[in-house]
Write a structure and sequence with these properties.
Mean pLDDT: 95
Structural class: alpha/beta
Bound molecules: 5'-O-[(S)-ethoxy(hydroxy)phosphoryl]adenosine
Largest sheet: 8 strands, mixed
Number of helices: 21
Strand order of the largest sheet: 12-11-8-6-7-14-15-23
Number of strands: 30
Distance between the termini: 24 Å
Radius of gyration: 24 Å
């Protein structure tokens, strides 16, 4: 679990509540309980009415077909996601409204109006077609946060080619595995990307990955960093984006997609070393992303909306691109880090573009908190009217700081709980209505039947248990790409017919949900899901390492930090140099986000008599907490030794 018992206790004593101002409520999309009542009466009708707000080429015959664990939504319906994000707006006054305001790391910016974005997407859709991409072919996208990323994904959606976006911070090995898993035909990448002034050599990484990805026939390369990074273009395979776009026709008819046709695959960490390719389909996903963006963020025509996530993660998919654009909103897309070139960067952007809605992660809020409130104070943040939080539990102190120093005590905060698998937000306040409690994600979105259950699956009315979802929702995952067994085992086996989230949660007497963190071997490090097994495999891959056990430990800024207990080969001596080498090795194998914070060398790892590593014990050691029951240990002395070593290191 992500927090120590003490922190959880403190969280649950939180008694403050915050209600929206009258002004906010009077202008909000949702001002009363009618939607919740409607959902109770007829959930399918609720979703159907949201679906009717979108454009369909052909209406569905049936709203939901549910045969555990397979849901089909809007059966028989035909639509296109890029059409809903673009074509339907260019017929209206939104034609020349800013769709995406892109802000580069150096402060430069590009505004793409709906009309301009429409043209770029159409052109690139034709480029993909000319490269031989057909409906159903997978396209991997490995790009930094530049406009071409949004253009590429919408172009894929336009021609019905599922995209698989791989976060630009991932290593060549991670990219290779993700391409191999879905057998992508085309890769879209760039010469490089900027990160805190440095160039990340994306094409070079891609070249490394491409040595073992026979499925890739063509590579499209965006010129982002120009002369700063020399790239080698392989003749016949590698092509420049700008060259391909030069004489391409500006209209590409949108593919008539079946509601259940695949829209994208997005890989996320699970409890084994192999990432899961989460599959999302067209109709249900679009309805979920559209409806939640509109109601959770109370989105209005005149709003400027900014979600600070990277599009490489699901938050960027649903709440930078698909949700906001389906709503015809102006969405800001920022290339860089919150602290570059200085720690006022986010607030400078809020001021410059008069941002109204701001959605970020607790890890960022805690960093701002540490840097001090004097920084946001230098900027005019008065345009803000709504704040959001996502990715990990937000501690009440960070919530209060966000509320006070960013929201000027007047903005509701929506703490949104969801997952790559859920496609869109499932548990959240509705900002004009819900009474907020700092640290609680509040209550399920209308139509979502979330529950907290005990080990046996019995609903816990007040108290702690596992967070589950009792009935299907439109934007739920439809499977794990190419791995039916794992889909069934991971989500539908603990409680048959009920979706298992992998999170622990507590429900209070008002029915509010407080998410406590993962209950499986997945860590949440600065809002990123990282599997302990992935890091372990990366460590064991190093020639000096025999065995390793990785656990998450609470961390003030990142939520969790990665601690690796590591056993070296007999003839290898531990040293600070080796420790750094191992950390770098993991970063190289997976990506910098997985670099262990601590490595503890140990002659042995605590195991049960049947040889299983006792992670709970290691977690306790890492947390410096009191040990639990050790009677099943094969060699209890190992634990004491480890503990001493750890305390020595901390002390
Ligand atoms: C965690 C990110 C508490 C949770 C959208 C979940 C949260 C995992 C919250 C999914 C929240 C996400 N409060 N915990 N508001 N939002 N989580 O797939 O553990 O990257 O299972 O999706 O993040 O992470 P993922």
């Amino acid at each position: 679990m992500a927090k120590t018992e003490k922190a959880i206790e403190a969280l649950l004593k939180e008694g403050r509540t915050f209600s929206p101002s009258k002004k906010f409520r009077d202008n909000a999309h949702v001002q009363d309980e009618a939607l919740y009542r409607k959902a109770k009466r007829n959930r399918e009708k609720l979703w159907e009415d949201f679906a009717k707000e979108l454009d369909w080429f052909k209406k569905w015959r049936k709203v939901l077909t549910w045969k555990v664990p397979d849901a089909k939504w809007f059966t028989g319906g035909k639509l296109n996601v890029s059409y809903n994000c673009l074509d339907r707006h260019i017929e209206t006054a939104r034609k020349n409204k800013a769709a995406i305001i892109w802000v580069g790391e150096f402060g430069e910016s590009i505004t793409l109006t709906y009309w301009e974005l429409y043209r770029e997407v159409n052109k690139f859709a034709n480029v993909l077609k000319n490269l031989g991409v057909k409906k159903g072919d997978r396209v991997t996208i490995y790009l930094p946060m530049i406009p071409e990323l949004a253009i590429a994904m919408l172009a894929c959606a336009r021609i019905g080619a599922p995209h698989s976006i791989v976060f630009g911070g991932f290593s060549p090995d991670s990219l290779r595995d993700r391409i191999r898993d879905c057998k992508a035909k085309v890769l879209i990448t760039s010469d490089g990307g900027y990160r805190r002034g440095k160039v990340i050599p994306l094409k070079k990484n891609a070249d490394e990955a491409l040595k073992k990805t026979p499925s890739i026939k063509k590579v499209v390369v965006v010129n982002r960093v120009g002369d700063k990074e020399k790239v080698r273009m392989k003749r016949g395979r590698d092509l420049w984006w700008h060259k391909l776009m030069e004489d391409t026709s500006p209209y590409c008819a949108p593919e008539r997609m079946d509601s259940e046709d695949m829209l994208f695959i997005l890989y996320t960490s699970g409890t084994t070393g192999k990432p899961k390719g989460i599959v999302h389909t067209t109709g249900g996903y679009m309805v979920g992303a559209y409806a939640t963006t509109k109601l959770v963020f109370d989105l209005k025509e005149e709003d400027t909306y900014w979600c600070t996530a990277d599009i490489g993660w699901v938050t960027g998919h649903s709440y930078i691109v698909y949700g906001p654009l389906a709503n015809g909103a102006t969405s800001i897309m920022y290339e860089g880090a919150p602290d570059y070139p200085d720690i006022g960067r986010f607030w400078a952007i809020v001021e410059k573009y008069a941002v109204n809605i701001f959605y970020t992660a607790p890890t960022a809020i805690r960093a701002f908190m540490k840097w001090g409130e004097e920084h946001p104070k230098k900027y005019d943040l008065s345009s803000l009217r709504l704040l959001g939080s996502v990715g990990e539990p937000i501690n009440p102190e960070a919530w209060m700081w966000y509320h006070t120093h960013i929201g000027g005590k007047k903005c509701p905060i929506v703490d949104t709980w969801w997952q790559t698998e859920t496609g869109s937000i499932l548990i959240t306040a509705l900002p004009g209505l819900t009474k907020l409690k700092p640290g609680s994600t509040t209550i399920p979105f209308p139509g979502i039947e979330a529950d907290v259950v005990d080990e046996a699956g019995k609903s816990v009315k007040v108290g702690a248990g596992y967070l589950v979802i009792n009935s299907p929702w439109p934007s739920m995952l439809r499977g794990i790409y190419g791995d039916r067994r794992r889909y069934v085992d991971t989500y539908w086996s603990k409680y048959p017919g009920i979706y298992f989230t992998g999170d622990g949660a507590k429900r209070d007497k008002d029915g509010y949900i407080w998410v406590l963190g993962r209950v499986d071997d997945v860590m949440n490090v600065a809002g990123h899901r990282i599997s302990t097994m992935e890091v372990e495999s990366a460590l064991v891959d190093h020639p000096a390492v025999v065995e390793s056990a990785v656990v998450g430990k609470s961390h003030d800024l990142k939520g969790q930090a990665i601690v690796a207990f590591t056993t070296l080969k007999r003839d290898v001596k531990s040293s600070p140099k080796l420790l750094e080498e191992l950390r770098a090795h993991v970063a190289k194998k997976i990506g910098a986000i997985a670099r262990p914070d601590e490595i503890i060398f140990t002659a042995d790892l605590p195991k049960t008599r049947s040889g299983k590593i006792m992670r709970r014990l290691l977690r306790n050691i890492a947390e410096g907490a009191v040990l639990g029951d050790t009677t099943t240990l094969a060699d209890p002395s190992v634990v004491n030794q480890l503990r001493e070593q750890h305390e020595h290191k901390e002390g």
